[in-house]
Design goal:
Structural class: mainly alpha
Number of strands: 0
InterPro entries: Cyt_c-like_dom, Cyt_c-like_dom_sf
Order of helices and strands: HHHHHHH
Strand content: under 5%
Radius of gyration: 17 Å
Shape: elongated
Protein name: Mono/diheme cytochrome c family protein
Keywords: Heme, Iron, Membrane, Metal-binding, Transmembrane, Transmembrane helix
Distance between the termini: 53 Å
Length: 143
């Protein structure tokens, strides 16, 4: 039994460390890919946005591309093609309260899931980003 417990803890530590490295590397790649710092000017931010490949078929979903959400999530109702690691966010506006026990606004400020807590915790949304995401998720849920 002791040997199995040791194997479990070693496996757990490797998996946890791998997940941490994955998210840390992803953040660094996003920065290297041209995401600007919060102190960057509006003209610099517009330049970065225009340099990113568009994966949203409508302007409503562009915030998910800009913010990097589409690395893990799709928003199919807005034409945002993204990764399959996370769930499609098309119904998140209405599903988050039931799934996570808090309104979506609170979830985006302080996520109740471990994965999203790590993702958003290190790079919180600005007020403008929060509004844009909430508006887009509301539109997505109505389609």
């Amino acid at each position: 039994m002791g040997k199995n417990l040791i194997i479990f803890f070693v496996s757990f530590a490797v998996a946890l460390g791998g997940g941490y490295l994955f998210y840390q590397t992803g953040d660094q790649q996003s920065t290297a890919a041209g995401k600007s710092s919060p102190a960057a000017s509006d003209s610099e931010q517009k330049e970065v946005v225009s340099a990113q490949p568009a994966s949203a078929s409508s302007g409503e979903g562009e915030i998910f591309v800009q913010r990097g959400c589409s690395a893990c999530h799709a928003v199919s109702s807005l034409g945002v093609q993204g990764g399959a690691t996370g769930p499609d966010l098309s119904k998140a506006y209405t599903n988050v309260p039931d799934k996570h026990g808090v309104p979506i606004e609170e979830f985006l400020k302080k996520p109740t899931s471990a994965v999203m807590s790590g993702v958003i915790g290190g790079n919180p949304l600005t007020d403008d980003e929060m509004k844009a995401i909430l508006d887009a998720l509301k539109i997505a849920s109505e389609k």
